[in-house]
Amino acid sequence: MFGIGFTELIVIFIVALLVLGPKRLPEVAKTLGKFYREIKSTVDEVKEVVIEEPKPHTPPVEEKLSKIDDLEDELDKEIKKEKKNHHAEPKREKISFKKGEKVNESEPEKS
């Protein structure tokens, strides 16, 4: 109890007996006992509430990282699918700054 040995308790009791006297010592002991019981019951109630309270489950970091890796793999697969489906690029026209002339990619440029 609080790191106090038996001999120290006896010394405290003797000092309390001398200071308070034999008439008031039982009253003070009862009051201290009630106070101690109230504090102990309050602490026990708090412990019960804390223990019974469900804690939110937070997955470990490794689990979160594996989910991120899976999502990255799925994204890479979808990107590759899209590239396969749209592999043909649109033909672009080259524009000349000369009036009214358009040059196709397949035709050589006129100089």
From TrEMBL:
It is found in: Membrane. The keyword Transmembrane helix applies. InterPro entries: TatA/B/E, TatB. Keywords: Cell membrane, Membrane, Protein transport, Translocation, Transmembrane, Transmembrane helix, Transport. Residues 78-111 are annotated as: Disordered. GO terms for cellular component: membrane. Pfam families: TatA_B_E. It comes from the Bacteria. One of its GO terms (biological process) is protein transport by the Tat complex. Gene3D superfamilies: 1.20.5.3310. It is a single-pass membrane protein. The chain crosses the membrane at residues 6-22. GO terms for molecular function: protein transmembrane transporter activity. This is Sec-independent protein translocase protein TatB. It comes from Persephonella hydrogeniphila.
